[in-house]
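[Meeting: bench + compute handoff]

Bench side (C.D.) handed over the final construct sequence. Compute side (W.E.) agreed to return the predicted structure before the next meeting so the bench team could plan truncations. Sequence as handed over:
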Amino acid sequence: MEKIKAILKSPQARYGTYSTLLVAVAVAIVIMINMVAGQFPESWKNIDLSSNNLYEITDQSKALLKSLDKKVEIHILAEKDATDERIKIFVEKYAGLSKKLSVKWTDPVLHPTVLVANNAESNTIIVSCEETGKSMKIAMSDMITYDEMAYYYYGTYEETAFDAEGQLTSAVNYVVNETTQKIYYTAGHGEKTLSDTLSDLFAKSNFSTEEINTLMQTEIPEDCDLLFLYGPTTDFTEDEVKNLSAYLQNGGNVIYLMGETDKMLTNLNGLLLEYGLEVVDGYMADTQRCYQQNPYYVFPTLSVSGDLATGLESEMVLMLYPRGMKTVDPARDTITVESFMSTSSAGGYKITEEVQEQGSYVLGAVATEDKARLTIITSDTLVDENITKAYSTLENNTLFMNAVTSNFEEGSNASIAPKSLAITYNTMQNVGLSTLIVIVGVPVVILIGGFVTWLKRRKA
């Protein structure tokens, strides 16, 4: 007994008791922190550490969810434990941004009748709004896309993009809005066809589309909310331009992306002149804001605000061989012209091989008159898939969809591009002496210093 008392009174015992008490207090604190943190919203608990910012939610989605005035349910028909972890995390984080959103899980294995009741298959997300009576189904397979060619050639599934935000935001936007805008796109003048990307952007923003040949129409249809001229390469007739002018004067909306052509579009240019914009000859070059020293691959200077600026962060867009415009006096005092995209002061175009006109030229502008709105962008390469897919950091599609949705009073850009799942590599551009010193020299110096220190201590 005396030995036991002596052991308990020893310094080691006292230190051990003190350490045990500290550990117990630390464990209690950790448990309390976990209990408190467990009550936080899901959007606070999930920190996005993914390489491609998979769980980062864009300003467009945040603005839509913040403005929700109707309750929306996200009903997931899937086995929760078997669902892709990325989808589970994103849905919870997304729903945490609005009190109007609720998430419900139903396991179709345990409750098979839910599939019949909702006329859906397993691994489906149903977004619905009871107030509007509208719903939209999203297949989980649409949230993570795969390279079909890789499977065709190599028999392997290669993930290419994560589109959870785009699908959910599109669905929420659809179910809470009771109206759908109609976009007509012209044909018969060498226009480009709508790409899959462009069609997807329109669908995500709840726009329906239909082709129209204005040569066969005496007037623009009454249900046309926006007329889209997508890169025409031949001119419109005088009668067609009269119809376009009448449509605008009656409060219509037109967006015109210029195509690459060597033909004179006299009638179309005359319509632009009526609205205070003069098209100059030739293609624009910009020696100050260009890609890889190619002056005809232009990074325009943006001067956007309001709806046009939604979701733009870097304000980096790229256009190839754009046309240029100058602002002039419009045909009527009621017309107002605002430029939102231009070259730098180093922009210009060639008149002849010897003569050049240098200065800042308009590459994108909006002309308004009462309720009418005419938007002109001087190159259809703004929405060319070959550019937007090759350079995923560009904001071409965001700017274009902002220009489209700005035509509608209650419109908002709900078109969210998928996030790439491709592996990204760090590359060195414009490598110089200072770059080599930072990237190579500094680590080498640190390694040598560490080795010398280690050697001295070893000999000591």
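W.E. noted at the follow-up: The two ends are 50 Å apart (CA to CA). C.D. will use this when planning the next construct.
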